[in-house]
Amino acid sequence: MGILNVTPDSFSDGGRFVSKDAVRRQVDAMVAAGADMIDIGGESTRPGAPEVSLQEELDRVLPVMEWVKSHCDAYVSVDTYKPQVMKESIALSVDMINDINALESDGAVELVADSGVAVCLMHKKGTPKNMQANPVYENGVFNEVFKYLAARADACVQQGVKPEAITLDPGFGFGKTLTHNIELFERLEMFSELQYPLLVGVSRKRMIGELLGDVPVDERVIGSVAAASLAALKGAKILRVHDVAETVQALKVTMALL
Ligand code: 7PM
């Protein structure tokens, strides 16, 4: 899964707007490099980032989605927790809803159940604004994340989501310290007990920077690729990454030699 952040700071036209050409070039590059799915996001969930209005998010995401769907045969997911964005994406035949809120927003489960669209349910602790303040897991981070994902998957199935539509994600970095992230990664293979495919997103995240001695985001590619390969060895089925070419090469070699 290649990450496409449709935000002015990712695809600047030199000002406040998103350059359409730059977005399209990025999609073409990721697909050519072997991405099977493009994850379109219109709102940065960075701690402390300004919230984006519903209309702004729709204006950023929907035209790109329409273009990707008509232009290539990659799957498309939408990174959103807003039911209205889900609804309008579903109308454009989006393939998966990628929700950091695990469909906890009002009406979200019903939208996914009624449409039959696939969904990724992610764990996070707190809100993007406060989640890194001082996360504490009384019964251990693995146990809490495991129980949460099992409960959310059950609740969704109860409300009509087909089990085969569900993917789970432990949500690296979302309300987790480096130690928490390491504990989760150590036991990553145990999530396969839940019988749902697992998605892992660690690409360029702070945990990678910290493991390398606080390197900046543009120096986290090799560490991210190493983590993605290990996640695949531990059973992850979808890897959410910025650096598609690098990750695909690493995965091809890793899996060929396994
Ligand atoms: C700032 C902070 C900008 C965090 C971007 C992010 C995930 C996701 C994101 C993930 C799933 C990032 C994150 N991360 N969706 N969306 N899993 N399913 O680093 O780990 O890309 S946004």
UniProtKB/TrEMBL annotation:
Underlying gene: folP
Record keywords, A-Z: Folate biosynthesis, Magnesium, Metal-binding, Transferase
Enzyme Commission designation: 2.5.1.15
Transmembrane segments: none
The keyword Protein biosynthesis is assigned to this record: no
Family matches, as Pfam families: Pterin_bind (PF00809)
Protein species of origin: Hydrogenovibrio thermophilus
Protein name in UniProt: dihydropteroate synthase
Keyword Iron applies: no
